[in-house]
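Input chain follows. Return structure tokens only.
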Amino acid sequence: MKPKIVKFREMHSLWVVLAASAFLMSCGEQKKEATAVSEESQSVEPVASSHAKTTGIAFDREDLDVFFTQYLALQASFVASEAGRVQEIAREMEGIALQGSPEVSKSIAALAESDHLGQQRAIFFQLNKAMVPLLESHLSSGEIYQQVCPMAFENTGAFWFSNSEEILNPYFGDAMLHCGKVGKTFGAL
């Protein structure tokens, strides 16, 4: 009996399939999760908009309390991949007189101007970077989770903030909903 010789194309195809599977599994995504994503995405936004108050998160400034509640609604709109809703919430956030944070205000204004989801996500990352000093200095109660997706922006990585340890990725939405991990936890001073 003669042994079967495996052709290069067959091996290459096998490696491509294995690599693609590893890529998808790297962030814990599973095929059966994808079917439930649209249902999850639709239910995220209403919960997030009032969730900050119910989880005990508070700041030593009222403007930050209002801002972070709106931020959670903004983040949920990114999870749901709703560019129009992102723009709408950013326009509402422009009305919050946030003191001492020109980079945050600049990012919010840019989000209010943009209707392109990819561009909005890049601006959202700039917003998150600008928010770090506010969270480090003004959180008076509760915990805020800085969550990280290492695959965002062509594997350069990006982070966002959440009032829950559950990962709901705003950079990929339903394409990779649970991709990420908690990188840092901000607690009250």
